[in-house]
Structure formats: structure tokens, C-alpha cells
Design a protein that fits this description.
The chain is α/β, with parallel strands linked by helices and about 325 residues long. The chain is about 30% helix and about 15% strand. The longest helix has about 35 residues.
């Protein structure tokens, strides 16, 4: 899916990754991959790259907004397919890409949707890319993408970054904010478009997340391409993003949750401390089971309702004489 000239999006089930051309006017020239999708998606990602930039044209770099499983899941496989391609991330994100630390545990109690309730089973292990991963340049430049710069937008993760191109005011925001309610499975399936805060169940620092959204508003973006949801443009994007920034604590920040009042603590070596969970794993499991059973019950009830009118008509219809059969 083209976002703007020189920037393509690939939706990998429920997460987006992006292909950025170094020179938009050269579609088969150098390019950079932004994020790496879900585990098991490497072949699909490479196939789309060949469609967009031609065969035997590996990216000059892979740059990461952050390293959650849905954004970094195929890195190991991609680095085998592209053995000379380096990976770049913020220094505070490196512990999760070099095997030194896992992320803070998710909080399934926030968000109020199936994607949130299921978050305690999502992969949280770190990736170990060894010397293939490097810190992003301190000057804010993006390797392989002249005209782009990175901005530190923490909150969703300690080292989360967003990428911005001044020409066209194009923003690739990762999960600093989204354009779909990421906690809801229904919204994710339908891709109902609306600016929302970062996915709540994976956000361990709400104060930093609020500041990051305000920072992105100040860019006055014309294009907003996020990790979840369909890209948004123009005044609609700016109005909804500004509304999110002003009312962040009331519309994005949960009222109750593990990290609402006390963030996880992390540094360049990874996670140092996390607040205690609000509910036990058993209660979370029961909540998931109840949600699934409720969904199945609604589906069965819906099917029954659709059949009942026919059954009533069949039962009450006038008897018809049977045709004679010798």
C-alpha cells in the first residue's frame, strides 16, 4: 500500500511495517525497512520488497521504532535472508535486541478489548542480534534515508522512536500513537480509523507517552503512518492528534492499571523494576476464558435467531398434498 511517493506500507495481520526509498524518484534504488513485523513473516516481507524495489535489492538498513514481538518478530529470519544488512535502534532499545533484557510484563487489565485480554500470552522475550544491531546516530539522522530524522518518543517502550521527513511532513510514528483502537479485536479487524494512544496493555510509562504525543503534535504532520491502523492525512490527522495530546490523561491513559501511577523503570541495561500486578495470572486466565465463552455464546445465539423464523414458518405452514408416486 503506497502511503506517499517513496513510502510503502505492508500490513502484517494486525501490524504495519514500512518500506522507505532513499530517493522517492528512484523506485528501484536504495531503500530502508522500518520495523520487521510478526514472527514467520520474513518471506512475505522480502517478496513485497522485491515487488517494490526489484529483485536482489536488499535494504541498506533496517531501522526499528521499537522491538516488541509484532515489530521485531521476523528480524532473525530477515537477517539470514539479508546477511549484510545492519539494524539500528535507540540505545535504550538495544537491551531488548541484544538478549540482555525482556520488556516489562504487559497489563491485560487495561484497554477493555480482546487484544488486551490476550496480551499476557504474547511473546516478551528479547531478541539477540549480536553485532548486527547498532545505536541510531546521535545527530538524529537515519541511516540510508537522507532527509529523514529520528525522534525519541518513549512511553510505549523506553527506547521507542519515530521517524520524520520534513519534505511532505511525513511521520512514521510506530506505536507512539495509533490510528485504530489497538486493544479491540473488532476495531483491528474492521480497521475503524481514529487516532488513539499507544496500545495500553504494552505501555509501561504513561507520563512519557503523553509527552511523546505532544512532541509529535508540534511537528504538524501532513501524513501519519503508525504501527497499527490505516495512515491518516491532513487536517483530520492534525485535529485528532492535537485532541489526543490535550486530553491524553482522560481518553488514553487508563483509570486503573499496573503502570498508571507507577511506571516501569528501565535504563541502558534493560528493565530495573516494575510495579506489582493488580490481578493474579489465574484471574487473567479466567477472564480470557469468560471472554471466549461469551463470544462463542453470542455467535451460537445469533445463528439460532437466524434459524428460528424459518423453523416457525416450517412448523406452522399449511399441509400440502403429496404428489402421487407409483
Amino acid at each position: 500500500m503506497p502511503v506517499v511517493p517513496g513510502l510503502h506500507a505492508l500490513r502484517d495481520v494486525f501490524v504495519n511495517l514500512y518500506y522507505a526509498a532513499a530517493v522517492p524518484e528512484q523506485p528501484h534504488g536504495p531503500w530502508v525497512l522500518i520495523d520487521a513485523g510478526l514472527p514467520g513473516s520474513a518471506d512475505k516481507i522480502k517478496a513485497h520488497a522485491e515487488e517494490a524495489f526489484g529483485p536482489a535489492n536488499a535494504p541498506s538498513a533496517i531501522v526499528m521504532t521499537h522491538a516488541h514481538f509484532d515489530h521485531a518478530g521476523s528480524l532473525d529470519e530477515l537477517l539470514k535472508l539479508w546477511p549484510d544488512v545492519p539494524v539500528y535502534a535507540h540505545p535504550l532499545e538495544l537491551p531488548y535486541l541484544t538478549g540482555r533484557s525482556g520488556y516489562p510484563p504487559p497489563d491485560p487489565t487495561v484497554g477493555g478489548g480482546l487484544m488486551a485480554y490476550m496480551s499476557f500470552v504474547y511473546p516478551k522475550h528479547p531478541y539477540d542480534l549480536g553485532d548486527r544491531v547498532h545505536p541510531l546516530p546521535e545527530d538524529g539522522s537515519v541511516p540510508g534515508l537522507p532527509g529523514w530524522r529520528w525522534l525519541h518518543t518513549p512511553g510505549h517502550t523506553p527506547g521507542h522512536v519515530s521517524f520524520f521527513r520534513e519534505e511532505g511532513r511525513v511521520l512514521v510514528a510506530g506505536d507512539a500513537f495509533t490510528t485504530v483502537k489497538g486493544e479491540s479485536a473488532i476495531a483491528t479487524i474492521t480497521q475503524h480509523q481514529e487516532v488513539h494512544g499507544p496500545p495500553a496493555y504494552f505501555t509501561p510509562d504513561w507520563n512519557s507517552a503523553r509527552v511523546s504525543v505532544a512532541q509529535l503534535v508540534s511537528l504538524v504532520p501532513e501524513v501519519g503512518a503508525t504501527g497499527h491502523g490505516i495512515p491518516m492525512y491532513g487536517e483530520l490527522l492534525r485535529e485528532q492528534l492535537a485532541h489526543l495530546a490535550v486530553y491524553f490523561n482522560s481518553i488514553a491513559r487508563p483509570k486503573i492499571g499496573r503502570y498508571v501511577h507507577q511506571p516501569a523503570v528501565a535504563d541502558a541495561d534493560g528493565v530495573r523494576a516494575v510495579p506489582p500486578p493488580l490481578v493474579s495470572p489465574l484471574i487473567k486466565t479466567l477472564a480470557i476464558a469468560g471472554t471466549v465463552l461469551a463470544a462463542v455464546g453470542l455467535l451460537l445465539a445469533s445463528k439460532k435467531r437466524r434459524k428460528e423464523p424459518y423453523r416457525a414458518w416450517y412448523r406452522d405452514r399449511p399441509a400440502r398434498p403429496r404428489a402421487y408416486r407409483p
